[in-house]
Amino acid sequence: MRTIITVFLFFVSFSCLAQKQEDLIKFKNLFAGESEKHNWGKELKDNKNELTFVFSATFFLYKEVISSQDLDACVFSPSCSVYAIESIKQEGVIPGLFSAFDRLTRCNPGRNKKLPVDLKTGKYYDPVGL
Amino acid sequence: MIADTIIRFPHIKKAGLIVLTNLFFFLAHPSPCLSQDLYSQELSQKYAGYLFSSQQYGLAAEEFERLIFFDNNNLLFKYNLIKSYRLSGNLNMGIKRVYYFYGTSTDTMPAILASEFVKLQILSDSLTVVENFLNQRNTLSLEYKSVISSCNLLLKGNYGVAQQMVNEASAGYPGFPSPLMSITQEANRVKLKSPFLAAGFSVIIPGSGKVYTGNWSDGFFSMLFVAGNAWQAYRGFSKYGAKSAYGWVFAGLSTGFYIGNVFGSAKAARKYNKNKKNGIDHQVFDFVRSDSF
């Protein structure tokens, strides 16, 4: 079983090595200056109820503490975490959570290439409600 | 001080006289009265025709507005104006101008203007207005009406009824546009996906609903996520018992991915249908824009 998993992960890792269109766009202005910094604190506002606020606060902490230290690896624009908080705010807590779970399964190397590309980020454009 | 300067520098006096003489002749000369009137009706018509033929439809519309100011009853000017607005993409202004010319009494509208009016309404997606217009008395020919009705039915998604209408019309009118026939046939070949069936598939086998909608990789990863988390939950419960936090965390994640996949499969089917319909809609819009009928 371990051998099968290792071989599977080995083949999956090949998709990470190729230079993609989004990589070229991402590094185009690498030395042009500091890129635009997001203000994730705005997500703490406009919450319909306390539960949504809890999710917003969790999102804010994740973005400021964890995601800021990590690479921008999500293939979609907006990223999965932003999609999750937007769907929770727009569709409600329970349907929004299920939409977020669905989005996580869609964020894979064999993603749907029929989706339009966001020219600003070079990633697949997949906002809530598309 | 000026007199003193003129005495000291006589050539300045001479130069001043030359300037004054030239100025007098310039003002007294009759040439300004003979200049060409660039804004005459004849020249405006020529210029509007040039702009229209060189596909500068936005500018052509402005020139045709000037021509209508000269001659409000000229049908050709009105037709070219409305067509220029349509081709420049200014659909709302085109519709506004038609209503300005004819008000609500669209039954008296000449056929060439009525044809432009329905094209404008179709391109701005006002399908109910088109349907009402076709049902009321107007100057459009029956063949033209059948073409527009077919386009309207295709845009509404009634592909079967549209096919029936196209078949009847093409039998009656030999010149019925063939592009519309092929669009209707293509629309009837499209097999839409049922969101309920997609959700049902995912209830039975996680990920199979996504496979049904053509998203193979999404289906595979959904299956992997649900099965992987369920297996981890099973391991946790079997190793540490029913009070195992390990088991409950993975059971929660597995349930979330499972229900999310059921919702996502229905959403994927709806998105699939929407994309297919958009493809047909674009073909119909291109056909209407092409002026081939």
Could you characterize the architecture of this molecule?
The complex is a heterodimer of chains A (130) and B (293). In chain A, strand 2 and strand 3 (123-125) form a beta hairpin. The longest helix of chain A has 17 residues, at 50-66. Chain A contains 6 helices and 3 strands. Helix content of chain A is 49%, strand content 5%. Chain B has a domain at 195-283. The longest helix of chain B has 45 residues, at 245-289. Chain B is elongated, with a radius of gyration of 35 Å. The interface between A and B is medium-sized, with 18 and 18 residues.
Detail the topology: elements first, then pairings.
The complex is a heterodimer of chains A (130) and B (293).
Chain A: H1 2-12, H2 14-17, H3 21-26, H4 50-66, E1 76-77, H5 80-91, H6 93-106, E2 117-118, E3 123-125
Parallel strand pairs in A: 1-3
Antiparallel strand pairs in A: 2-3
Helix pairs in contact in A: 4-5, 5-6
Chain B: H1 2-8, H2 10-28, H3 41-53, H4 57-70, H5 75-87, H6 91-102, H7 111-123, H8 127-135, H9 142-156, H10 159-172, H11 178-189, H12 195-204, H13 208-212, H14 216-240, H15 245-289
Helix pairs in contact in B: 1-2, 3-4, 4-5, 5-6, 5-7, 6-7, 7-9, 8-9, 9-10, 10-11, 11-15, 12-15, 14-15
Strand count of chain B: 0
Q: Could you give the distance between the termini of chain A?
A: 39 Å
Distance between the termini of chain B: 82 Å
| Strand-pairing-aware structural class of chain B | mainly alpha
**Mean of all residue-level pLDDT scores of chain A:** 82
- Specify Rg of chain A, calculated over alpha carbons: 17 Å
Taken together, the total number of domains of chain A comes to 1
Gyration radius from CA atoms of chain B, angstroms: 35 Å
Global morphology of chain A: globular
Assembly form of the protein: heterodimer
Show the largest interface: A-B, 18 and 18 residues
* Biggest pleated-sheet summary of chain B: none
Order of strands in the sheet with most strands of chain A:
1-3-2
Secondary-structure element series of chain B: HHHHHHHHHHHHHHH
> Unreliable stretches of chain A, pLDDT < 50, 5 or more residues?
none
Q: Could you name the ranges of chain B where pLDDT drops below 50 across 5 or more consecutive residues? A: none
